[in-house]
Amino acid sequence: MHLAPWILALALAASSEDEARAALERAESAARAGRFSEAKAGYERLAKRHPGTEAGRVAARRATPSAFLGWDWVVQNGPSANRVDVVLMGDGYELEHLKGWTKLAADIPPLFERQPTFREYWRYLNFLRCDLLSADGGVDGFGREYDTALNASTGNTFAGHVVIDRARVQAMFAELPEHDGLAICFVKNGVLGTGGGGIATIGGREYTTTVHEWGHAFGRLGDEYDSEQSAHQGATGRAPNVSDTGDPAQVPWAHWLEAKHPSVGVYEGAAARRKGAWKPTTSGCTMQSGERFCVVCQEALVLRIYAFVDPIDATTPEPQPHRSAPPLQVGPEGLEIEVRVMRPSSHELEVTWWILPEARFPVTGGAAPGARSTTSKDRAKRGRLEPLGDAPHRKPRREASGRHVLRIAPKDLPSGKHLVVCRAKDTTEIRGERWPWVLSDPDGLLESERSWWIEVP
Ligand SMILES: [Zn+2]
Is 425 helix (H, G, I), strand (E, B) or coil? Predict the structure, then answer.
């Protein structure tokens, strides 16, 4: 058989791409199995042999002296698309220390599992580990520069808090198949910690502060301690738990004061200042140095979790909210719709079903329930659900399994089209507690819905 030269060239290019991809996968699995020098050698070889391929370019990035070598799950509670994915990264870990890094990373999820707020929402979290090689073990500062994966340096505070280079963290995120822009970075030779904008940084072995720094990074919470740690510039920032005014009507937690929660007040001394910053409690919140978050911080954290995680985890069949698409047929054997909702550790979400006639939705009446759900991972963008005034088909129900099934028989409904609506809500009412964990949910994050057009012949 004779092949035209250009076909041969294409075939060779394709086989080179395939070969390179296979070599990349081998290097990645070596890293996943903890064989880091084998992974590094694999990337170096691949970068040399297949420089023109996509996999060769990835390998070239990973063959640099400080680089991403691979990643693995530490705890996987569910699909990334509907979980908070917490990425653990290490800086200043040289090849011979990477085994120690994987051990450190394994110690982090239990810190969250032991913390009451995160324990309740444990199944909403995933933890994954990036294995990052650093050529050096040092932290930049005092005139010295080191070559490390996240380019850590000593920050401009008098205690010398460690900070990392956010652009480097972004570059490591880009090596992952999926991420939420949330990371905890452990700097081997750094001191203290910092957190903000989704990224927490922890120095050395001070991981007892991990949950506190995560409160800053993920929960956008402020400090509730008043001891000076840095030279302040500018005004006090506002956070759910830090106010720049002591006026009870103006503080971000005014709704807790209005509800007269016994542990909430307005106390001066927060955000590492004695004056000019106020906090909601003196009960020793984790954002001060305590074991538990105060109710105000806890509310903010639960809402942040629900900004990423939809209360409805999966449905069968897929939702069918658009009237223009063919409706699901209710055959002689009936139709079954199953919804699986998220499962907090000690309480259940409340699920309600409606079956609404087509006449309920005028053609010009705007989007029907469920048609507005956004595919954006920031659930706050969807906005609150309109209350449904109609009588539900089935009263609100809670199931420990999180599995809710609606069975529709043709005799149950008049013939024609109907919209089935399912709503799930976390009331945040925990057994044995007098107060719900969330008092105010302005974006409607605790609630979700799906809908299906069905037709009874
Ligand atoms: Zn607090």
Answer: strand
Position 154 scores a pLDDT of 81
> What pLDDT digit, counting tens, does each position of 318-342 carry?
999 988 889 999 999 999 999 999 9
Structure tokens at 260: 């007269």
Nearest Cα to 297, choosing from 275, 267, 264?
Answer: 264
Distance from Cα 233 to the centre of ligand 1, integer Å = 23
Average pLDDT for 181-206: 87
CATH hierarchy code of domain 64-217? 3.40.390.10
Q: Within its chain, how far is the Cα of 407 from the centroid?
A: 34
- Centre of ligand 1 to C-alpha 165, Å, is 28
- Sign for the CA dihedral angle at 69, 72, 74, 75 comes to positive
Pairing verdict, β 328-329 and 447-456: parallel
Q: 223 CA distance to ligand 1 centroid (A)?
A: 8
Domain ranges of the chain: 64-217, 312-456
Provide the greatest CA pair distance for the chain. 87
Q: With cut-offs at 50, 70 and 90, classify the pLDDT of residue 233.
A: low
pLDDT in tens, 288-310: 988 899 999 999 999 999 999 99
Ligand 1 centre to CA of 341 (Å) is 29
Distance CA 216, CA 198 (A): 8
